[in-house]
Amino acid sequence: MRTKSKVIPVLALITAAMVGVVSLGLTGCDTGSGTNTGGTTDTTVNTPDLTALVTAPVKGAAPQSTFAEQAQYTGTIAWKTNADADHTGVFAAATVYKAVITLTAKTGFTFTGVAANSFTYTGATVTNAANSGTVTITFPATTAEGQDTVVNALSLDSLVTAPVKGATQNTTAINTAQYTGTIVWFENNGTTAAPAAFAANTVYKAIVTLMAKPSFTFTGVAANSFTYTGATVTNAANSGTVTITFPATTAEGQDTVVNALSLDSLVTAPVKGATQNTTAINTAQYTGTIVWFENNGTTAAPAAFAANTVYKAIVTLTAKNGFTFTGVAANRFTYTGATVTNAANSGTVTITFPATGTDGSVPTTGTSTVTVNLWTNDAAILATADSVTLSRAASQTALITGPSGAEYTNHQWSINGIDVAAPAGTAPAYTFSSLGRGNGTYYVGLQVKSDLGSADNAWYLTTITITVTN
Predict the structure, then answer these.
(1) Which of 48, 60, 132, 203 could, after both became Cys, cross-link 188 (CB 3.0–4.6 A)?
(2) pLDDT at residue 185 is higher than 90
(3) Pairing, β 348-352 against β 311-319
(4) What whole-number distance in Å separates Cα of residue 57 and Cα of residue 259?
(5) Which residues have C-beta within 8 Å of that of residue 24, sequence separation ≥ 6?
(6) 74-78, 357-361, 402-406: the lowest-pLDDT one
(7) Least confident residue range of 35-44, 175-184, 231-240
(8) Can you tell me whether residue 212 is helix, strand or coil?
(9) Distance between CA atoms of 343 and 290, rounded to whole angstroms?
(10) What's the rounded Cα separation, in Å, for the pair 7 and 374?
(11) 3-state secondary structure at position 48
């Protein structure tokens, strides 16, 4: 058997996210192994809506100066004019302002993988660079001097509590950024005052009287534009007097079916390295407990969540007096970004979260070299190279390049043994993307053929192992 003595660079792997480099080579020496510098892939920030976190500028109002801490990041806020000059003091009339939000990812989270301009703010223009937590929100011009802003906070869901049989009226005064208000309860005729505790099987109306704050006006509010989920709402045009007609309370001896089905605010998603959230649940409709398991649903999760692991939260809810889970359909509970299951008529809910962030083999700095045997008269030689892990959440890709030079002019790429289109030229490259692929292991192979005439004309196969995770 003959061996080649010169080193032929065969595979070099570079992630497009610039998290590191792995280079491989072929030589006549014995098989060796390389060691990657361990890197870490955190969970990509996925809460892009800033509407509730930043107060839009209003003529005569002072700018928001603090940014509320969130589960995935903290932040600061600075205000600028449309010409990017720093702004201090109250907002002027007829002026465009920008809020520059600087977000800092919390432990276990990263902005790597956040797409350009993916943050949002309803009614404003938002920009951010890819992989960045610096966000610029450009708001419409404030109203002109002598002109008020038309009230646009039209949802009353969080301000008025729906009537429940046996419950006491909610008459808490309303105080928002745009208006104050009062609530008065009546029976369905709109004139008979409701009892202090709501009766069974009765339709009630809430008459909500709103007063615009300075710089705001109801002039311009369309008729029947206020809303309340699950109820009928009416208001005259240009008016802050709103009537909410609720469905009848449940009949005597009949409980209200639980309809608070979103669990987003009650269960904290697992994050690599973070401690389990087991805070007891206590809402208007039910209480509950949270227990954490690994993906099999029986093995208890560790006190601190591990990397690259799927966890389940088993949430056991108990209906409060006047409420029932009978009537709750199967799989009706929700959690944004997770899979949620529940049996019909049950308060036992399973939330399966995506895998936590990865402690992957993609290095953060430096290179690693692998040396393998190349036997020139063998029909095929399998050389298993270093493996790498790519994260779909971080949109990572691998650029794999083959050898150049006249000696190896024939090339064929394959994935898991299936040929893929071979690029033209003597320095081929193949881009392997984690996007659009399922989690698992992929073997990317490159066959090269020696074409020096007097050489053996044999094909040689080298592979690299790529693991795709969330």
Answers:
(1) 203
(2) yes
(3) antiparallel
(4) 35
(5) 9, 10, 11, 12, 13, 34, 369, 370, 372, 385, 386, 462, 464
(6) 357-361
(7) 35-44
(8) strand
(9) 17
(10) 10
(11) coil
* Burial (Cβ within 10 Å: 0-12, 13-18, ≥19) of residue 31: exposed
Are the beta carbons of 399 and 382 closer than 8 angstroms?
no
Instruction: Take residue 279 and report the two structure tokens written for it.
Output: 């805070």
CB atoms within 10 A of CB 192: 10
Please check whether residue 390 is in contact with residue 361, taking contact to mean a CB–CB distance below 8 angstroms. no
Give the span between the Cα atoms of 280 and 287, in whole angstroms.
7
Least-confidence region, from 223-237, 412-426, 447-461: 447-461
Q: Which amino acid is at 45?
A: V
Model's pTM, two decimal places?
A: 0.42
What lies within 8 Å, CB to CB, of 162 at 6+ separation is 230, 231, 246
Q: Read off the amino acid at residue 314.
A: I
Find where tokens 């009928």 sit.
Answer: 232
CA distance 288 to 346: 13
Q: Write out the DSSP string of 320-377.
A: PTTEESTTPPTT--B-TTSEEEE-TT--EEEEEPPPPPB--S--SSS--EEEE--BTT
Per the CB < 8 A criterion, the answer to whether 290 and 279 are in contact is: yes
Nearest to 468 by CA among 444, 435, 445, 446: 435
Residue 10 token pair: 């065969």
d(CA 15, CA 131): 15
Instruction: With beta carbons less than 8 A apart as the criterion, state whether 142 and 94 touch.
Output: yes
The token duo for 235 is 């208001």
Q: How far is CA 329 from CA 112, 116, 325, 348, in A?
A: 38, 39, 9, 12
